[in-house]
Amino acid sequence: MDQRKTIDEVFLLRSMACLGIVFLHSFSRSFLETNTVVNSMNLLFTFATPTFVFISIFILARSYQDQLPTNFWGKRVKYVLFPYLLFGTFYAGSKGLEVALSSETSFLSAFGSFLWRHLLLGDYHGYFILIILQFYVLYYFFHSHLKKWSPKVVLPVAFLITSAYLGFFNFVPPVQTPLGEYIWAKLYWIPFLGWLFYFTLAYYCGRYYPAFVSLIKKHSKLVLAGPVLTGSLCVFLYQTDVFGKISSKQIDMLFFTTSMIFFIYYVGMSIRRVPDFFVFISQYAFGIYLFHPLFMAFIYIGLSILPINLPVMIQVAVYAVVSVILSVIATYIMNKIPFGHYMSGKIGMGRKKVSEQKVPVSVIVPQQGVANKS
């Protein structure tokens, strides 16, 4: 098997997921008024978060066919859990300061309120790291069973479990209490049940990689048409208020995200070489994900004091390009500071380093950030 080609596909998948999140937030920042077309585009960008979940488990299943490495938890604590805790604390501090400056609430009170919600409930944009950590636990305890179970049974069961869980929160009105409203608004995102299908799909795609590749090649026409068909369905259901939110935590997004994963992977297999740009974005994907909301807040301040209003699409470009550049710079600097990579995650391996590896495990894990081992 061409291990280098496998890496190129993962590079493309991770970078597209990363850029999808950046553009989702760029459009949200730029279009402050309701816009049907933009909202529909933002809905489709939400495929990115579950794709990160898929990548994390796909790499594990592809890399460790028989047994997990002895340092399995060490790396994940250092390069996944630590960044989650440190960034959660950082953003709690920045939000606490904002509240303290704009109200009579003390900084310590506001900081404490944000801190426990960030770290324990995943109530900030790093919540998907908490989901991935749950799947590491599941993988650790169940991978030996999953390889014995038939994917023809596990995948439909996992799909039904995820659909039932999401369907409950999609269609059942929230309990009319502050706690109930919070659960329906955000907290239901965190338990692994809402993401279980992606976990099992990624596991079997990674474990039976040759069959996975063969399958998407065999059904290439359906793979190419899939995003159009399922994306159109998602937009239709959104615009008809069947699903009134822009969220990846909806039943219809199970179909669209899966179709996008297969589509991007197929494209990666079909082109001769994934452009270096996507490899570069993939290397810095974890840092971009964690840093970009911070820099978008600064960009917002900068744009607000300009004497002219930039055209809205120019604003989108400014948010996306500048936040990515600054996030890359910040991640690079953090990796040069002692222990800094515990906050930003490590910069991933590039194509050259990967191609020099001879061991499949090293080749398949190009980065120690969230969407890699994560």
TrEMBL record:
GO terms for molecular function: O-acetyltransferase activity. Its main location: membrane. Keywords: Cell membrane, Membrane, Transmembrane, Transmembrane helix. It is a multi-pass membrane protein. This is Acyltransferase 3 domain-containing protein. GO terms for biological process: enterobacterial common antigen biosynthetic process. It comes from Guptibacillus hwajinpoensis. PANTHER family: O-ACETYLTRANSFERASE WECH. The chain crosses the membrane at residues 12-32, 44-64, 76-93, 124-142, 154-172, 192-210, 222-239, 251-268, 280-306, 312-334. Residues 12-331 form the Acyltransferase domain. InterPro entries: Acyl_transf_3_dom. It is found in: Cell membrane. Belongs to the acyltransferase 3 family. GO terms for cellular component: plasma membrane.
